[in-house]
Automatic annotation (TrEMBL), chain A:
<protein>
    <submittedName>
        <fullName>Amino acid ABC transporter ATP-binding protein</fullName>
    </submittedName>
</protein>
<keyword id="KW-0813">Transport</keyword>
<keyword id="KW-0547">Nucleotide-binding</keyword>
<keyword id="KW-0067">ATP-binding</keyword>
<keyword id="KW-0472">Membrane</keyword>
<dbReference type="InterPro" id="IPR030679">
    <property type="entry name" value="ABC_ATPase_HisP-typ"/>
</dbReference>
<dbReference type="GO" id="GO:0005524">
    <property type="term" value="F:ATP binding"/>
</dbReference>
<keyword id="KW-1003">Cell membrane</keyword>
<dbReference type="Pfam" id="PF00005">
    <property type="entry name" value="ABC_tran"/>
</dbReference>
TrEMBL record, chain B:
<feature type="signal peptide">
    <location>
        <begin position="1"/>
        <end position="29"/>
    </location>
</feature>
<keyword id="KW-0732">Signal</keyword>
<dbReference type="Pfam" id="PF00497">
    <property type="entry name" value="SBP_bac_3"/>
</dbReference>
<dbReference type="InterPro" id="IPR010065">
    <property type="entry name" value="AA_ABC_transptr_permease_3TM"/>
</dbReference>
<dbReference type="InterPro" id="IPR001638">
    <property type="entry name" value="Solute-binding_3/MltF_N"/>
</dbReference>
<feature type="domain" description="ABC transmembrane type-1">
    <location>
        <begin position="289"/>
        <end position="476"/>
    </location>
</feature>
<keyword id="KW-1133">Transmembrane helix</keyword>
<dbReference type="InterPro" id="IPR035906">
    <property type="entry name" value="MetI-like_sf"/>
</dbReference>
<keyword id="KW-1003">Cell membrane</keyword>
């Protein structure tokens, strides 16, 4: 049983004369795990950030859970954004708050959760990402991998319907990549809808339902991991994969 | 929000209309200046009380009171008009501005009606022409009649004074000893290093009255009245006020009241050296500290609120608000605080009667707001966009993001710069003394005139300023450290 969660309709995004997203129409169903790959500058971040309207589309529509969100007011958008968790390459934890405060902030401010509720939930999430002992620590005292796991917990605290990951492991030392991917993998298993921009082909292979290859502002090719990795049809997909795998 | 911008717009209009107005003199067809004073029931006098015995401050039971010959004259004029007298102190150089902008009705400040001054204000007739006297030891009083009795005798004068010039010209056969202070000259006289001291009559009288060993003789100098006479200044065209004042002056002259005023003033002057220690004047300094801190504290609070507002306007998307904020910030930062203080007191004073203290606070706060705005803007801009994006992606509104995420971090980054601004505010607020706000600098001048000591009060004030700023910087440093504590290092 598939239900469309996000429907993208002729999405175009231009920065000045630079067309970064060139007429994308796709549908993401509930429970889908989609991995987006592609060369640098292809528009992957812009695509992801268009979904929760951190970037406003130049034209086209995005429907989330059946409603068009491109025309919403900022206030209405705030309500949509709570349901779309986002994890960034640079973690973007709030350095002036403890781990616990980072996670509690949005539930308390946006959902008016009580301190006790928010704390209980935050501690449960920290346990889920394996960091229950870091509740009182400040971000500066954590390793990159730990910071990214806190960032994931922070996004999950709003009980989102979809999680957007923008190269969550690119800024990490190699030995820390695994711990973050593990958390993401568990999340996928729990049925979370996920859109993940990553260069981790192993992860894509194992976890993705679909792999989208993005190039020059369009989804140039998409398919199951097997189709994309074993039998890419497009020349540019082959090119990209051979470069990535050569590394 | 909208209302705030309206207020700004109004302020801007006021400013523009003032600029347009200022070229035109306030000429009234029929002069109603006297009637206006009578209607108000108060005659407002401007003076610069640092010139004993004409006008000076005495500490009267812990309160500063302005006294002197000029004040007595003003009281008589007010009495004759049947109104109360109100005294506004300001720098001598600002007195005429005060007249032109209607801050004061008249100026009595031992002012000589030069032709230059006559172009911008009207003057009463001369109420006093200072005689030049010579102070001698009482024991020698019989030996000397006038300036010509001092041939071959050494004479004391205050360096750089009018008396020094007079003595040079008209007592050319008496060698001069020039000293900076009359107290030192008196010591020289008593030890016969000099045989006489040339001084203006009221000053001479003050010393003689306080010291039974001294006597006073008339120097009989030839004087040019246009250089020595003193008159009362009024706004141009205030003929009825001038007439009323002249009537009072005639009366004062006829009754010989000036001599009486002079004696009263001399009585109040401190001329002996016994209680001129700085400790004796601690109340003056304490009061100054109080006002300096008051002005600074209020200005800091208003400055931060205004600065935050301006910074948000400048960073915001609304083009009009952005332009307004930029214009304000650039304009305020591009003009000296001194001019802003004068503008608020005298300029806006045309429309609103703002007391000097309030005007000072407003000017300093408005000034500080512009600087704080730039500090806050740089603080906000120093926070990576990722912080905002993370907060917004969690569903926080723009306002919540600012309040909970960006601002607290920005505050920590700008704390040292903000601290510097507060510290410089303590120092820069001293400019309000020019409009007569009794802050530390003003009190410093008061103590200088009261004690005839130039340097000691300066040193005391300097130490006080240093203690204030150093103390504040220590307190700010403590908070800075506490904020850093939040963020454990690796
Ligand atoms: N705010 C912006 N203003 C102007 N141009 C932008 C902006 N953001 C992105 N771009 C441009 O859009 C293009 C796509 O950028 P984007 O970051 O989406 O690519 P990407 O696929 O995520 O690349 P990477 O792998 O390096 O993260 C680039 O040419 C970039 O310069
Ligand atoms: Mg990117």
């Amino acid at each position: 049983m598939t239900k469309p969660l996000i429907e993208i309709d002729h999405l175009v995004k231009k920065f000045g004369d630079n067309t970064v997203l060139n007429d994308i129409s796709e549908t993401i169903n509930q429970g889908d795990v989609i991995v987006v790959i592609g060369a640098s500058g292809g528009g992957k971040s812009t695509f992801l950030r268009s979904l929760n309207l951190l970037n406003k589309p130049t034209s086209g529509k995005i429907a989330f859970e059946g409603t068009d969100i491109t025309g919403l007011s900022e206030k209405e958008l705030d309500q949509v954004r709570e349901k779309m968790g986002m994890v960034f390459q640079q973690f973007n934890l709030f350095p002036n708050m403890t781990v616990l405060e980072n996670i509690k902030l949005a539930p308390m401010k946006v959902k008016n959760a009580t301190d006790a509720e928010a704390t209980a939930q935050a501690l449960a999430l920290l346990k889920q990402v394996g960091l229950e002992d870091k509740a009182e620590a400040y971000p500066a005292s954590l390793s990159g991998g730990q910071m990214q796991r806190v960032a994931i917990a922070r996004a999950l605290a709003m009980s989102p319907d979809v999680m957007l990951f923008d190269e969550p492991t690119s800024a990490l030392d190699p030995e820390m990549v695994g711990e973050v991917l593990k958390v993401m993998q568990d999340l996928a298993k729990s049925g979370m809808t996920m859109i993940v921009v990553t260069h981790e082909m192993g992860f894509a292979h194992e976890v993705a339902d679909q792999v989208w290859f993005m190039d020059q502002g369009v989804i140039a090719e998409k398919g199951t991991p097997e189709q994309i990795f074993s039998a890419p049809k497009e020349e540019r997909t082959k090119d990209f994969l051979s470069k990535v795998l050569a590394q | 929000m909208k209302k705030k911008w309206m207020r700004w717009l109004t302020a801007l209009l006021v400013l523009l209309s003032f600029l347009g107005f200022s070229g035109i003199n306030h000429v009234q067809a029929a002069d109603d200046s006297l009637q206006k004073v009578k209607d108000k029931g108060v005659l407002v006098m401007g003076t610069s009380p640092d010139y004993p015995p004409y006008e000076f401050l005495v500490n009267d039971g812990g309160k500063n009171t302005t006294v002197g010959i000029d004040i007595s004259i003003a009281k008589q004029i007010a009495k004759d008009m049947g109104v109360k007298l109100q005294i506004k102190s300001m720098d001598f150089d600002l007195l005429l501005v005060g007249l032109q902008t209607g801050k004061v009705d008249m100026v009595i400040s031992a002012m000589t009606p030069t032709s230059e001054r006559k172009q911008s204000v009207d003057f009463s007739e001369l109420y006093y022409t200072a005689e030049q006297s010579i102070i001698v030891n009482k024991a020698d009083a019989k030996l000397y009649k006038d300036k010509d009795s001092f041939v071959g005798k050494k004479i004391g004068v205050q360096t750089g004074s009018l008396q020094a010039d007079l003595a040079k010209e008209q007592m050319s056969s008496s060698p001069q000893l020039g000293l900076a202070k009359y107290t030192d000259l008196v010591l020289a006289l008593k030890s016969h290093k000099v045989e006489g001291i040339v001084a203006e009559e009221p000053v001479a009288l003050a010393y003689v009255q306080h010291d039974p060993d001294l006597a006073l003789i008339n120097g009989k100098f030839t004087l040019d009245p246009s250089e020595n006479g003193q008159a009362i200044g009024f706004a141009k065209g205030a003929t009825s006020l001038v007439a009323a004042a002249n009537k009072s002056i005639d009366k004062i002259k006829k009754k010989g009241l000036i001599k009486q005023y002079m004696t009263e003033a001399a009585d109040k002057m401190t001329t002996n050296t016994t209680d001129t220690s700085m400790i004796h004047y601690w109340k003056y300094f304490a009061k100054g500290i109080g006002y300096t801190l008051l002005i600074t504290a209020i200005s800091v609070v208003i400055g931060v609120i205004l600065g935050t507002l301006l910074a948000l306007m400048r960073l915001g998307k609304n083009k009009l608000l952005h332009a307004l904020a930029v214009a304000y910030i650039e304009f305020v930062r591009g003009t000296p605080l001194m001019i802003q203080v004068m503008f608020v007191y005298f300029g806006l004073g045309i429309f609103l009667d703002i007391p000097a203290l309030l005007a000072g606070i407003i000017a300093v706060a408005l000034n500080s707001g512009a600087y704080v705005a730039e500090i806050i803007r740089s603080g906000i801009e120093s926070i990576p966009v990722g912080q905002t994006e993370a907060a917004r992606s969690l569903g926080l509104s723009q306002k919540q993001t600012m309040q909970s995420v960006v601002f607290p971090q920005a505050l920590k980054n700008i704390w040292p710069a903000l601290g510097n601004e507060f510290i410089s505010l303590i120092k820069e607020s001293s400019i309000v003394s020019i409009i007569g706000v009794t802050d530390l600098i003003y009190q410093l001048k008061v103590v200088q005139t009261a004690t005839y000591k130039g340097v000691q009060p300066i040193i005391v004030a300097m130490v006080i300023y240093f203690v204030l700023t150093f103390g504040l910087s220590k307190i700010l440093g403590y908070f800075e450290k506490r904020m850093k504590h939040d963020e454990a290092t690796h």
